[in-house]
Amino acid sequence: MNTTATSRFADRGTDIDVLRVFCAGDGRFGNALGVVRDGRTHPDEASRQALAKELGFSETVFVDDPERGAVDIYTPGVRLPFAGYPLIGAAWLLDLEVVRPQAGEVWVRGDGEFTWIEARAEWAPPRTLRRYASAEEVDALEVPEPGEWIYAWAWEDEAAGRVRARGFPGRGDGIDEDEATGAAALLLTAELGRALNITQGLGSQLLTAPGPDGLIELGGRVRLERTMTI
């Protein structure tokens, strides 16, 4: 975190857990997530948006009720009704069976290695799914100019459902590339209609599986990177 953020919020005593969500099998990679366990430290939308911007993570989640799983999600620039990796991270950290973002009730399960949520693709913010001919083409992409949110993908092994992907938010808020994007994985799964094993960014792993009634399971590994007070 930069020194500006430290000085601006130092008197608030806000505890923030920094997680890595959608880690690879060896614990590396994953997308950095800030979790403010006590949302009362930033009780309104303006203060939460300011903190999310200062922290600079792809997303920051504020916990409003840890027993009910009520959470509030922000990127550095906007509030989100739903996002995959903040919900997986918060559920893992707080050991929850259900999380409740603005979009609705999201059920959670764990299998020892992965934490899974059940969600609907229509909850995901808009993403442009752009298919390429090979994983090598995806690897070679340059960060595009700010504009639409692009999820670039290609089959690594179509028969096995293995996908290579990169996410470019295009927001111009300092997040040029998203290391792991659960919402985009939901959209891609809904479009293809099958379970996927996605490698995104530097090596993060996202798993998906279509379920009944339009639900999609989204799973990943989580680890606690550090806890800080600002």
From TrEMBL:
Q: Which InterPro entries match?
A: Phenazine_PhzF-like
The protein's name is PhzF family phenazine biosynthesis protein
